[in-house]
Amino acid sequence: MKGYDKYERTYFMPPECTYDWVKKDHIDTPPIWCSVDLRDGNQALIEPMSLDEKLAFFQMLVEIGFKEIEVGFPAASETEYNFMRALIERNMIPDDVTVQVLTQAREHIIKKTFEAVKGAPHAVIHLYNSTSVAQREQVFKKSKEQIKKIAVDGAILLKELADQTDGNFSFEYSPESFSGTEVDYAVEVCNAVLDVWQPKASNKAIINIPSTVENAMPHVFATQVEYINKHLKYRDAVTLSLHPHNDRGCGVATAELGVLAGADRIEGTLFGNGERTGNVDIITLAMNMYSHGVDPKLEFSNIPKIRKKYETFTRMHVDPRQPYSGDLVFTAFSGSHQDAIAKGMAWREEKKLYKWSVPYLPVDPVDVGRTYDSDVIRINSQSGRGGVNYVLKQNFGISIPEKMREEVGYLVKHVSDEEHKELSPQWVYEIFEEKYVNTQPYFQIKECHFKQIDGIMAEATITHGGQSRIVDALGNGRLDAVSNIIKDYFGVSYELSVYEEHALSQGSSSKAMSYVGITCDDKMYWGAGIDDDIIKSSINALVVAVNQLPAIKADESIQDERLVEMKNYIQANYKNITLEDLAEHFHLSEPYVSKYMKEKSGKTFGEIVQNIRMKKARTLLKNGNMAVENIALSVGYQSVEHFNRTFKKKYNMTPVEYRNS
Ligand SMILES: CC(=O)SCCNC(=O)CCNC(=O)[C@H](O)C(C)(C)COP(=O)(O)OP(=O)(O)OC[C@H]1O[C@@H](n2cnc3c(N)ncnc32)[C@H](O)[C@@H]1OP(=O)(O)O
Ligand SMILES: CC(C)C(=O)C(=O)O
Predict the structure, then answer these.
(1) CATH number at residue 654
(2) pTM for this structure?
(3) How do residues 185-244 score in pLDDT, each as one tens digit?
(4) Which residues line ligand 1 (CB under 6 A)?
(5) Domain membership flag for residue 183
(6) What is the separation of C-alpha 227 from the centre of its chain, rounded to a whole number of angstroms?
(7) Atom of ligand 2 nearest to the CA of 126
(8) Regulatory domain: where is this region (predicted)?
(9) How far does residue 174's CA lie from ligand 2's centre (Å)?
(10) 322 assigned to some structural domain
(11) Which domain holds residue 606?
């Protein structure tokens, strides 16, 4: 890529590099968390938060459990100033929470800041000035000594004003733009500031190391932090804090390695809001610890609720891939992931495990306020049988037999592929239902009675081709007897291979769900049935399965017989027949009859009716002198105009022209 040679590395390795942090593999106690949402997060918003929004956000941060909150930059604006005053005057700061405010190292800004914090029960005054090579040269045009003096002068003024101002104050100093600063020089400036403040273990100062613009790999930052940790004066009286940004996308790694390197405290924001690519995301950091079995001491058990408020207050949007918080972070669309998750969840339930080990899910989604129903497995063309089965089970209590799952999986994903869409759980259910439960059958068994005679005798009413017949057969069980009826009646052979059933809870009532798999020529055919009655549900399942057999589907004698019967019925009732009448007469649904007629005769129901009417009309026109109006009505048209129009369209002449031709 052209232009790469315009850049060079702008960070500095410390004079001595030690790598003690490398030997640690996890963080066992959470750092002190400081939220900077209301300051660094707020200053990065297109529209900074209003006073009321800041108050509500502050309340949310307190509820999450933050004990240190940088509430703003009071010298920046009236809103910022008034917010600080409101917190103090309305007594909104809980006893165990410390608020913090930021100030430049400029006299009037520091003075304004102290006016804002007057009367605070406990506040941290956070002083910063830039120390990087670039800022020394380009912005301040000052030497190292002069830059250090800005910090020291600021520190002196903080101390003086703190002594003169009503309230309880501690101090924080940040060598801003540390990432482009020589590490030993940054330490020198920090130590000079500490010399002014003379911190005590009972009232610690905070030294905050920002990766103001992240410009190095996280291990470089950790090595820098380790050096600072070892070279800061008054170390027992100093809280070493980090303030990572995310310009290289490594904010979280930078923070974690920095903590391993000796940092005690982290400044960050919810969802990583902040300047440019953001501050480090505290939710991710906290949840990373949580997923290692460490209590982060922040409450993220309902992230969706926090997110909703955050999005309202900041007008920002959380990315669907944002760790722990995004819409899609617990979702598997792909088959093998879904399969493993579904099996892992089943394993967990079966073994009654408390410890979490479900594949592909770093934490239990329920722990952060998500659900298993809609968050974990979603169906598209990348999905597989494990996922489809999970969705049916989780959402509808349908537990399909192991051997049936592959067919159902392919059936569902095929629809998604064709439609090019994600399928909602309801859609998945409808696909399943249409094929296995409510399929339009070639035959049905509407009624069945059983007698115990040397085995089971079943007597079933089989309906097909518009006719119903009562047939009986013996079997060694009820389903076997019904199966024998079907075999005898249609002359088909198959093996009844799988029968499974379970209760299906729907609201307060419970139904029986049955599955039947039959084998014919080494291939399995499936059906399912749902009914209050277990026998009925199993017969329905069997009927659907048999209806899938190619021998039944291709049985032209059944087809032809029914088609002829339908045509005869139309012929006999052509004057006022509707599709609804026809479907009802043959105990079938309208869409099925409509599709069936088109497929089998090449004409729609409407075309067939029209042909019959026209044929009758032509005969009446040629034989006798019945008025055209009367002919129209007698063959079933509502009006003569309609008849004339249809006739002309079909024969390219009017009925009168036809009569005279
Ligand atoms: C990395 C960070 O996030 S740091 C925090 C940044 N946040 C903000 O800036 C948000 C709030 N800031 C503001 O509202 C404004 O900047 C104010 C009100 C504080 C100050 O505004 P202004 O007086 O117009 O000054 P501005 O911020 O533009 O800075 C300009 C001057 O201050 C100096 N300056 C900037 N930062 C500092 C600092 N930390 N310490 C000392 N001097 C500073 C600049 O060198 C410049 O000096 P010059 O005029 O002599 O060249
Ligand atoms: C003021 C400092 C800590 C800052 O916000 C930064 O450097 O990013």
Answers:
(1) 1.10.10.60
(2) 0.81
(3) 999 999 999 999 999 999 999 999 999 999 999 999 999 999 999 999 999 999 999 999
(4) 40, 43, 73, 75-76, 104-106, 109, 128-129, 139-140, 150, 176, 212, 275
(5) yes
(6) 43
(7) 1
(8) 439-661
(9) 7
(10) no
(11) 556-660
